[in-house]
Amino acid sequence: AQQQQQYKAVVSTQSTGKYINFMTSVDKEEASKIYRRACMVHLVKKPYIHLNWAAFEEERGNLEIAREALDHIDKGMPGLISVILRRAGLERRSGNIEQGGDIINNAIENCRGRETRDFWVMKYTSYLQYVAKDIVGAKKLLQEQIERNPRNKRLYVRLLELEHSSDTTYPDTSVVNEVFNKALASTLPPEEKAGLSHRRITYLEEFGNDVSAIIAAYDEHNKNWKTVLDEKKKESLMQPRDFKRRDNNYNNTNSHNRSYNRDRGYSRDRNFSQGNNYQNNSYNQSQGGYNMNYNMQHAQQQQYQQWYSQYAQQQQQYAAQGQFQQTTPSRGY
User: In this structure, are residues 17 and 34 in contact, taking their beta carbons and an 8 Å threshold?
Assistant: First the structure.
């Protein structure tokens, strides 16, 4: 049932997107109404269509509606990187530099996890350096983060970059975009191209001035490279079984048992031999000393046979000499 719901949601998203693309070329006001009904009613937790709606309204100059679309998905699914970057970029392109910085600063305060926090710290540092032209504020931010996390190497490296080169020149997005396009058209492996495509989207969200170029980058990424990143993520999650760890635990358990037995003076071989001796003695005792009695009787019989053979030889010698010995020699027992 859950898979069917997901399939219906995907189908409805694709069909809605196709219908909106068609209506955009026919009637923009009707397309805006379709966007609103889709985002507010049917596809409430679909970030991509909210981002498209915000870009559509921004191109038309309806900044308040664009903010409404982004605020709606940000409240429904808080913490999405693409949504936060789009909100900051919208304010930056509108000339509200301080409001854009506040959005990224709030993301630092509300995020969870060290890696996510480092990501937003780096983004806010770049925003202060290149957009707000506030080098002092960027250095102060990094110094505060270093005091909070003194073992983070990236913070020191970024602070050294600011101290070494305090350039506030805004990067040329057209030149950078040409480099990205050249890399994506090269013979690099698909995994590296997918990573570069995702990085291009992040760069355009952070510094791009043309919202249509951002949407085009999203479309190309979802069409060509999103499946590559998803497959790579699945492979990383499917880790092989750690047999070495199990063997180490097994060896550690055996070594512990050996140490325990050695401390107690316990030996497996010695205990086995002692056990066999105990069983044999118990068996002999249970049989009433049968083995011991049998050995004694056998020895007496051999001794008697030896005495009788000696006695027969003596009688033969006496008979040959014409004498007869009546006395019987001692048997020796």
Answer: no
Closest C-alpha among 220, 195, 205 to residue 107: 205
Name every residue whose Cβ is closer than 8 Å to that of residue 166 and which is 6 or more positions away in sequence: 129, 135
Q: What is the DSSP string of 47-72?
A: HHHHHHHHHHHHHHT-HHHHHHHHHH
pLDDT of 309 > 50? The answer is yes
- Inform me whether the pLDDT recorded for 90 exceeds 80: yes
Q: For residue 288, count other CB atoms closer than 10 A to its CB.
A: 9
pLDDT at 273 over 80: no
Q: Does the pLDDT value for residue 45 go beyond 60? A: yes
Q: How far apart are CA 219 and CA 211, in angstroms?
A: 13
- Mean pLDDT computed over 298-302: 68
The token duo for 153 is 């190497």
State the greatest distance between any 2 C-alpha atoms of the chain, in Å, as a whole number: 157
- Six token digits for residue 28: 């923009």
Q: Contact 77/83 with Cβ under 8 angstroms?
A: yes
pTM, rounded to two decimals: 0.62
Give me the pLDDT at residue 134, please: 93
CA distances from 214 to 93, 145, 175, 207 (A): 13, 31, 15, 10
Q: Which amino acid is at 44?
A: V
Burial 172-210 (b: 16+ CB within 10 A, else e): ebeeebeebeeebeeeeeeeebbbbbeebbebbbbbbee
Cα end-to-end span (Å), the chain: 101
Question: Could you say which DSSP state residue 209 is in?
Answer: S
Q: Which of 78, 84, 12 is nearest to 54 (CA)?
A: 84
